[in-house]
Amino acid sequence: MIEDKNPQRTSIAQLGEFGLIDHLTKHFEINQPSTLKGIGDDAAVLDFKDKKAVVSTDLLVEGVHFDLAYMPLKHLGYKAVVANVSDICAMNAKPTQITVSIAVSNRFPLEALEDLFAGITHAAKEYNVDVIGGDTTSSQKGLIISITALGEANAADIVYRSGAKENDLLVVTGDIGAAYMGLQVLEREKQVFQVNPNNQPDLDNYTYLIERQLKPEARKDIKDLLEKLEVKPTSMIDISDGLSSEVMHLCKQSNVGCTIYEEKLPLDPQLISVCEEFNIDSTTVAINGGEDYELLFTIAIEDFDKIKANPNLTVIGHMNKETEGKHLVTRANQKIELKARGWNALEE
Ligand code: ADP
Ligand code: MG
């Protein structure tokens, strides 16, 4: 579907390992004051002064986490950075640096890696993180990308998964489920394309969903927003594997239960209409679909007035006693036990 008519193909073997690293990394700029040394030595050197450093890593494997048939490499690079930056945001920290490690087979020409790094560069600019190192090696088959993100925070500002209390309100940013439905649309179009490569898909009705799948954004704005509202979450996590499984992490680590209300779930109108078209229940998609990179957090009930008018934030339920369990209350007022049916790469 995303095929270049006349792609230039420069073999990566031609450049050699060091030539390749130099070619891909020479344009990276250093902007963070905490970066003392970036790319070019045996290790980067950082100085966070009186702040705490937070670190998170992700590994993305072709065929398991992404499919290049509908994921352009530029988007993949962007999304790989976003997924990591999102984890830093979920600690209520500010992302500052990333490292980028890739294993690549000789099936990929230099131009493909340039696209991947164009996406990485774009995301690094957008999120103001310095690319400070990485590793580049060959793989026998497929592309593997590992990104590590670093961030900084005052010790007192860091929010863990473990701080939720009984009666705390459960809040989600943005809307959920769209990235999953975007993937369903792309999968369908990929099959149509395989049958007839001349069939150009008309994706106008799906633009928001596809963008959420191919070009998600991390909620770097939420830390500042909450600071402005003078609210500190009691616990927080990012929604990469689906609301249901993420809320269960909060519950488990905080030793509480939860109640989520179906009618409160924030769904985009496009999600609702495409779920109808696909004959899929939108609530199931909203609670089980992954890759939205929104934040899920809990706040003390006294803070409700401070957040209630904000269009970025939706209260979807509350925490309760651990012994009361974890439930979704449907529009018909039925109580359904929550299951961690989130997207799990190991189950594929
Ligand atoms: P080493 O032998 O210590 O592993 P390399 O020759 O692999 O060093 O890397 C040289 C420099 O380039 C290092 O600073 C390393 O962090 C950086 N680097 C290597 N690969 C990448 C990459 N894919 N992205 C960003 N930086 C990279
Ligand atoms: Mg190396």
TrEMBL record:
Mg(2+) 3 binds at residues 42, 87, 238. One of its GO terms (biological process) is thiamine diphosphate biosynthetic process. It comes from Flavobacterium lacus. InterPro entries: PurM-like_C_dom, PurM-like_C_sf, PurM-like_N, PurM-like_N_sf, ThiL-like. This is Thiamine-monophosphate kinase. Pfam families: AIRS, AIRS_C. The lineage of its organism: Bacteria, Pseudomonadati, Bacteroidota, Flavobacteriia, Flavobacteriales. NCBIfam families: thiL (TIGR01379). ATP binds at residues 134-135, 161, 240. Residues 40-152 form the PurM-like N-terminal domain. Belongs to the thiamine-monophosphate kinase family. Its EC number is 2.7.4.16. GO terms for molecular function: ATP binding; magnesium ion binding; thiamine-phosphate kinase activity. Residues 165-304 form the PurM-like C-terminal domain. Mg(2+) 5 binds at residue 241.
